[in-house]
Design goal:
Blueprint: H1 2-23, H2 26-54, H3 69-75, E1 78-82, E2 89-93, H4 107-110
Antiparallel strand pairs: 1-2
Helix pairs in contact: 2-3
Length: 124
C-alpha cells in the first residue's frame, strides 16, 4: 500500500514538473504571444469603440456593449484600468493561450487611443 502511495505521489510530482516544462516551452510561448496579441487588439478595439459611441471609456470591461461570443475570450484574459474620469486607461494581457504572453506594441499602435502606461497599477 505504501509503495503504491509513494509511486502515485511521484507520478503527481512528475506530472507537475512536466506540465511546467510544457507551459514554458517555445511552442507554447509562441502560442501565448499569438493569442495574447489577438486578445489585446480585440480589447482595444472594443474599448475605443465604446469611447466613440458614449464619449468616455467604460467603467469596466463588463460595461462594453454589443460584444460577440468570441470577444468574451479576449476580454476574460485582459486587465483594464481606467482613470477616474474615464478619459484614459491602461490595459494588460493576463493570459495568452496557456500562460502570460510577452507583448511589446510599437508606440504607433497606441496613437489616437486613450492608452496611458502611467496608469499601470503598482505591483505588490
Amino acid at each position: 500500500m505504501w509503495i503504491l502511495l509513494a509511486l502515485g505521489g511521484m507520478f503527481v510530482i512528475g506530472g507537475v514538473f512536466a506540465m511546467r516544462a510544457f507551459v514554458n516551452s517555445a511552442p507554447t510561448k509562441a502560442m501565448d504571444d499569438l493569442f495574447g496579441d489577438q486578445h489585446l487588439k480585440t480589447a482595444v478595439a472594443l474599448i475605443e469603440l465604446h469611447r466613440t459611441r458614449y464619449g468616455k471609456y467604460p467603467d469596466s470591461i463588463g460595461d462594453l456593449k454589443f460584444t460577440g461570443q468570441w470577444d468574451q475570450i479576449a476580454l476574460q484574459n485582459v486587465n483594464y484600468y481606467p482613470n477616474p474620469d474615464r478619459t484614459a486607461y491602461y490595459l494588460e494581457v493576463r493570459r495568452g493561450w496557456i500562460g502570460k504572453p510577452d507583448l511589446e506594441m510599437p508606440p504607433e499602435f497606441w496613437k489616437g487611443t486613450g492608452y496611458d502606461p502611467k496608469l499601470k497599477p503598482a505591483t505588490p
